[in-house]
Structures
1.
Amino acid sequence: MIPDKIISAIKKYDTIIIHRHVRPDPDAYGSQVGLKEIISDSFPHKKVFAVGEEEPSLNFLAKMDDIEDEMYHHALVIVCDTANAARICDQRYNLGADLIKIDHHPNVDKYGEIMWVDTSASSTCELIYDLYLYAKDDGFQLNDRAAMLIYAGIVGDTGRFLFPSTSKKTFQHAAELVTYDFDRSRLYEGIYNIQDNIARLRGYILQHFELSESGMSSIRLTREELEEFNVDPADSGQLIGVLGDIEGIQAWVFFIEEDDQIRVRLRSKGPVVNDIAAKYNGGGHPMAAGASVKTWEEADNVVDDLQEACIAYSN
Ligand code: AMP
C-alpha cells in the first residue's frame, strides 16, 4: 500500500522538507503545514520544515520556514497538492535524498520515488487525514492545529462542501476534525472575508458579464481595470466563483492580466475544462483548471475552445 510506504519513509528520515504549489490556496497550505504538524508532533526529535514563498492572504494559517540548501542533504522531500513539477514552489525539491508526491489532481508529471495520487479525493488535505488514519496506530498524532489546517484545506477545495468532489468520506473526515479545538468562525473569516476593493470589483463583474447562448462566459480583467479597483492580480482568486450561481451558466473563464502574462482560470459545471487548460500548457481538475497565455489573441482562442466545449456539452 502506498500510504504504508509513505509512513515508512517518514519514520526513516530525520529531516523532512515539505513543499506545495506556487500561488497556494488553503488546500496547498493546509496539506503542507498540516502534514508538518502531524510529523513534528508525532516525532519531536525530527526536523520538519514547510517551505515556499509566503502568501500574505494565508498568513493566518501558517508561516513558511526559511532553510539553507544544506538541509536537503539526506532529507526526505514531500510535495503536496502539485500535479506538475514546474509548479512546485521552491525548485530545490529535487535536492533531497527521496521524493514523495501526494496529490489529488490528475497525474500530469510523474515525479517522485513514491507517488500517492488519488483524484477521487476532494482535496489533498483529505489524503493527509487518510494518511493520519493509516498511521495513528503507529504512533502518529494529530493536534488541534493540524486538524484546523486540514479542515481549512477541505473547506477551501470543496467550496464549503458544495462541489461534487465532496464525498461521504469528506463529511466523515470533517465530522471528526471539528471535534478538535479550533475556532471555526475565525477560520471561515480568514478564508472568506474580502476587502472592500474586491467586493467592488465583484460588483463590476456581475454588472458587466455576458453569457453566450451555450452558457459560456468570459471575463477579462486588464491591468488598467485591476489598477482602477486597486486589486492585485494575486487576489483575483476571490473573484472566480462569482459567476457560479448564475442560472444558465455552464462554464466560464477569467483572464487576469499580470506583468508578463495573462493568467487563465477556467471553471465549469459540466463541460470538461482541464483538457482546454492542457492545450495552453496548463492543467488542473476537470471542473477547475488554469493556464497562462501571452497575448489577448491566445485568450480569444481559449474562449473559442470553451465555447465549443459548452456547445458540445449542451448537444
Ligand atoms: P486556479 O484557477 O489557480 O484556482 O486553479 C484551478 C486548478 O487548476 C487548480 O487545481 C490548479 O492546481 C490548476 N492549475 C492552475 N493553473 C495551472 C497551470 N498553469 N498548470 C497546471 N495546473 C494549473
Note: The first helix runs from residue 2 to 12.
2.
Amino acid sequence: MKLRIGIVGCGTVGQGFLECLDRKADDLRARYGFEAKITAIADPVRGNLIAPQGLDIRKTIKVLAQGGKMHAVDTRAAKYDGVPTVDIIETAGADLIAELTPTDLKTGEPATSHIVRALMTGKHVVTTNKGPLALHYRELSELARKRKLAFRFEGAVMSGTPVFNMAEAGLAGVSIKEIRGILNGTTNYILGRMEEEGLDFAEALSQARKLGYAETDPSADVEGRDALAKIVILANVLLDAGLKPAAINPAGIGSITRAMIASAREDGFRYKLIAYVRREGARITAGVGPRKLSLSDPLARIAGARNALTFDLDLLGSITLEGPGAGRIETGYAVLQDVLAIHRDLK
Ligand code: HSE
C-alpha cells in the first residue's frame, strides 16, 4: 500500500526522514508492503512543491543536502513560491502530514496551526515538534480523536528511541510513579566533551550544532527549556498530568564550569542535566536541573547525545530505557517509526 506523505519543514529532520525512506525502501516494501509517495514539501527556506505523482526522493535528498532549493528538484516548484504553508498542507494530496518545522516553545507556532489544518482537512499527523505537544497536547489529541485520525510524535522526546511506542504496548496497565532521566542530547554532549577533552563550553556547543543535535535556538537546550518541554510532554501523555511548561522554572547547565566538572570527577561524581516527573497521591511535580551524580548511578554513564529514562512503576519496580536522543538520521527514523505504525493500522 502506498502512503501519500506531505513534509512540512524539510531541514535536518525532514532530510533525515527522506534518507531513511530511501535507504530502507526495498526492505520496507518486502517486510510490510509499505511504499511512500512524497506528494508535497513545504519549507520557507527551501521552497514549496506539490507533486501528486510523487517526487524523486533520492534527487531531493541530494539537492537539499547541497543547500539547493526545491526549484532544483523540480521546475514546477516556482508555481508554489509564496503560497502559505497551510494552503500547501490543505491541497497536498496527502494521507499524512509530517510536521517537522523547528520548535518554538513559547508559542508552539507555526507548527500548531499546521497540525490543526492537517487534521481539519482529514490528514493523519506525525510530528517531532515539541512546541505544540508541550503547550496543546490535550486539544490536539482530542481533535485527532474526534476526526478519527492518527496523531503521533515519537521523535519529540527521545528522537528515534521508542518511548511512546514502548509505553503504548509495554507499559499498558502499570502505573508510573516517577520518570527521571536525561532528555537533552546537546547538553549531555557538551558536558561530556568538557569533561573528557577539556573543551570550553562555546567550542563544545558549536560541535553539537554542527552535528545537528542543538535546536535552531540553542539557548533552549542550554537553559533547560528543551528538557522541560520533553518532561512536560511525557507527564501529559503518560501521566495525564495537564502540566504547563510556563509554571515550572528549569535550570540549565550555564552555571557548570570546567573547574566544577574536574573537581566532581576527582570525587567520583559527574554532572548531568536531569529532568523528572513524580506522582505523589494526586499531586504531580516536575523539574529540570543539573545534578552531581555518583559514577555508580546508571544515568552518570550516559554519553554523547544519548538520552536515558528510568521509569519507576507500581508492578515492575524500575526499568531504564536508553538510546539516541538527537540526530538527523535518528530523529528521521522516529518519523518513519510513526509512519509505519499508521500504515500498519490502516492496513
Ligand atoms: N536539541 C534537542 C537535544 C534535539 O539536544 O536533545 C532533540 O530533541
Note: The chain has two domains: 2-160+328-346, 171-324.
3.
Amino acid sequence: MAEVIVVGSRKAAGALVAEAIERLVAVQPDAVLGLATGDTPVPVYRALAERVRAGLDLSAVRGFALDEYVGIPVGHPQSYHSVIDAEVVVPLGLNPAAVHVPDGRSLGIETAGERYEAAILASGGIDLQILGIGTDGHIGFNEPGSSFASLTRVKTLTRQTREDNARFFDSVDEVPVHSITQGLGTILRARRLVLLAFGAAKAHAVAAAVEGPLTASVPASAIQLHPRATVVVDEEAASMLGELEYYRDAFENKPTWDPVIL
Ligand code: F6R
C-alpha cells in the first residue's frame, strides 16, 4: 500500500516533496515530472522555486501536465496551459518546449489523447507524478467510474468537480464540462507517485483511496496498485484514516537506508 506521511502544514509538505525532486534531479537532470494543477501542488512548486532562486538548476527537467480543460482557449487564464506556465515553467526556469500539456482545443481532440500518450512514451516515461485528489476521489480528471486501464482521453467532469473548481472562474457555468486527462493506466505507469491532500474536505476521499476497497468508484484507490506511491497529507486530510497511528509509527521508524519518497 501507499506510504502515508502526515505533515504539520502545506509548507512542510511542499518542502518534503521539493527535496525529493531535488534528489531525483541530482541523479537525473532531465527527469520527467508529471504535473498536477489546482491548489494542492502549489506548495511544492513554491518550495522548488525557492530552491531555484538559491541556485538549483532545473533547466533540463521535462514535464507532462496531468490534464487540461476542453473548450476554453489555450490563452485563457484558467487553462492549464496558462497555469502550468505561470506556476511551474516560469518560476522553475524550465524549458517551455520540454513541458507538455494535453491539447484541449476542439480541432483534433479525437486524437489528442493518443498523441499525448505517444509523447510520454517518447520521453521515456514519467519519473515522478505529482497528484492532487478531488473530493469525489478523482485523480487527474478521472472521475468515478474511470477504468484502471484508461489512457489519456476526454472525460466529462462531474457536477461536484465543476462546483469545486468554480472558485477559479466567475461562476460554475463557466467551468468547462469536458477535460482531457491522463488515464489511471497512464498514471500507474509513472515510476513514482506522490499524492498530496490538505484540509478536512479531502479527508473522506483520502481514506477511501488509501484504505478503501480498490474500486473504479474511487479512482484514486488505483494508487494501491502502485509499488512506489507516497501520500503526503496534513492532519485534517488524514483525520479519517483508520491506521493513522501505524503510519506515524512507520514514518518515525523509517530505516535510514529507505529515503523519503524516492
Ligand atoms: C489537477 C488535477 C485534479 C486536482 C484535484 C484537486 O491537475 O488533476 O485531480 O488535483 O481536482 O484540486 P485542488 O488541488 O484544487 O483541490
Note: Residues 36-40, 66-67, 132-134, 138-141 surround fructose -6-phosphate (CB under 6 Å).
4.
Amino acid sequence: MKTYRIACIPGDGIGQEVVPAGQAVLEALAASQSAFRFVFTPFDWGGDYYRRHGRMMPVDGLEQLRGQDAILFGSAGDPDIADHITLWGLRLKICQGFDQYANVRPTRILPGIDGPLKRCPPGALDWVIVRENSEGEYAGVGGRVHQGQPIEAATDVSVMTRAGVLRIMRFAFRLAQSRPRKLLTVVTKSNAQRHAMVMWDEIAQEVSREFPDVRWDKELVDACTARMVNRPASLDTLVATNLHADILSDLAAALAGSLGIAPTGNIDPERRYPSMFEPIHGSAFDIMGQGLANPVGTFWSCVMLLEHLGEAAAAARLMAAIESVTADPALHTRDLGGQARTADVTRAVCARVAAPQPVPQPA
Ligand code: ATP
C-alpha cells in the first residue's frame, strides 16, 4: 500500500474549518480502498503563530515541508496583521520557495449550483485558468523613498523573464492539449504595456509552434472579462500573468456560483518540491468559527491534490461525490442560499466517497 505524506496548514479564519474538513474527506476516501493511505502532518502557522513568534512560519519552515508529497493549505489573513505580512510571510514564501510557478484554477458550474449567468447553457462554462505564479507584477521588486514626505515615491516593478514566460506558456499549451477542446486563450495587455507584455505575446507565438494541434488566440485582459460573461463557451484554457489571472479567477469563481466552491493548485510541474492545494477564498473573518464555511472549494482542491499524486480514479470518485452533494439544495451552505453547515456537507461527502453514487446529469 502506498503512503502519501500530506502537510496540513489550516492558517487563519475559516482555513481552520475547511482544512480539517478536507482532511476528513481524504481519510474517508483512503479508508474505502486499499491502494493508498495518508499520513497527515499539521502545521500551526499563520496569524496566531505570528503573535507568538513574530513571524508567520519558522525560519526552517520550508525544510519541514520539503519531504512531504503535497500540502493542503487553508488561508492566510488576520484582521490585526497587515495583509502584505500574512501573504508574503507564509503562502508566497511557500509558493516561491518551492518554485510552484504554475497556479491552476479550474472553474465549472457544478450540478445544482445557481450561477449568475442566466443565459449560460449547461456545460458552457468549463475553464481552467493558468496563472503565472512566480514573477510578473508580484515579483516583490520595488521600494519606497521619502516616506511621509510630500516627495514620497513608491514603485512595484513587474518583472518577466524569458525563462519564466517560456515555462508557463509550455505548461498552459500542454494543459490545453490534454483537454478535449485543445483551445488556449493567451490573456495579454500588450496594447498598453509595451515591453514585458509584448515579450509575453512573442513567447506565446513561439511556443505555439511546438503545439500545432492546439488552437489558440490572444485576448486583452479587459476584453476577457466581458467575454467570460457574454461568451463563456468560447473559452477553455486561459493563461495569464500573476495579477491578471488573480483578478480573472475571482470573476470566474463568482460566475460559477460562489467563491466558496473554487479550488486551486500551486504546482511545481518538475516535481522538485511538494505542490500546494488550497481553496481560492481567503480567511473570511465575517463567518469564521460559526460552521458556515462552504468546504467545497477545499474538497475540489483535494481532487486536484489526488490528480497530482497520480490517483486519477480516487480523484474522479471524490469529484463525483462532491457533485452529488452540490446537486442537493438541502446540502447548500449559506453562500449558496442554503442552510447546511460545514459539518453537514463534510459528512455527506464522506458518506458518498464511502458508497459511490452515480454522477448527476445536468437538467
Ligand atoms: P482575505 O483577505 O483573507 O482574502 P477576505 O475576507 O477579503 O479574506 P474572502 O475570505 O475570500 O476575502 O471572503 C470574501 C467573501 O466571501 C466574504 O464575505 C466571505 O464570507 C465569503 N466567503 C469566502 N469563502 C467562503 C466560503 N468558503 N464559504 C462561505 N462564504 C465564503
Note: The first strand starts at residue 2 and ends at 11.
